[in-house]
Input
Amino acid sequence: MTLLLSVVIPTKNEQENVAPLVERLHAALRGLPYEIVFVDDSDDETPQAIRGLAGSYPVRLIARSGKERSGGLAGAVVEGMKRSEGEYICVLDADLQHPPDQIQGLLIKAREGEADMVIASRYRQGGSPEGLDGWRRNAISRACKWLAHVLLLGADRRLSDPLSGFFLVRRSLVASSNLRPIGYKIGLEILVRLQPRQVAEMPYEFAVRQSGRSKASLREGAVFLAHLLRLRREVPRPRSLPQSGSLAVEGKQGSDGAATLSLREYVIAKLKGSTTFVKFAIVGSLGYLVNQFFLFLVYDSPVLWFLPAKGTSVTILFVTYTDVRLLIAIVAGVEAAILSNFFWHNIWTFTDRTERLPMPLRFVTFHLTSIGSPIISGTTVAILAPRFGVNVYLANSLGIALGMFCNWVWNAQVIWRKGKEPL
Output
């Protein structure tokens, strides 16, 4: 009998979860020709637990060790996909946070809509990210989703959960593909590298982990950023795009019969003509010059003769400043640069933005964002240099780049956000 579905599950130290997961899968998929493929990187008794289930359920185990474990969780999924036999492949985690009883819904949506990929979304109406552990994990998840849109998918929000680890794909899409993921965001790897023509989403509620420990960590966050940058660097941009066609997540044709642009092609076509970031960088450079000018004007120029002399100390709120004139110069330079940047962003950089915040709120928010940028930069240096041994100047450069990037994203997406295009 030809298999309709292969369920690929990467595991690492999930011995307490595999038995209840397989039981729930069997109940949810009863009547369907399916298989369960575990790809295991565990150091505990998880492989033995899986082997114990093989006699009662259609379970296969791929146990990896040593260098075979390259690519992390996403690499395990790719290995499982290569050895799967079903017409469709469903990927989910072993921690019971992805509900097995929704797999048939993903399958029905794929077959009825002829979708190449169906993503289970925590952020669609009717879904929920409740299983994320606390507000920090929730905020990090949304920030990572935001980064993926900005770096790879653009500002379009029709794909609400491109980082979901619970999805279904046609095996023909991935069978002969050259996927090279690192970390754990295999769904994003498929979206960007393979650019499936038809993508659909279905809401689901992300459940609370019942046992075991989450694999999320600072190291995994760094791997995720490396994965984003690799995709940004390696995936070729199309040289030319069709002149007609419309974006449709489900992949329909345009009214004129022309082929629909894929999501990524559509975004690239829009970004090609965009000069907003270039303007942002020019204004930031001008702000640097303004800052230097006011630093000189206040600290070294004789024009402001009435200010305290250099080296004059003063105590403010129990803190002694050994050179109050330098303090005044720094504050004046920073504030002048902020005012200059705000003025030019408002009348030049973001003139096409239709959903700006009200002027007073825009002004206050911009100030707070500008103050946050050096905090991000300084924190990056403080973490990378002493804790990870990164060269101070390299760490400072990375901190400045990260601060500028966060500043850009916040300005472009919140303070001067662009109106949504009609679907």
User: Anything to note?
Assistant: The chain has a mean pLDDT of 80.
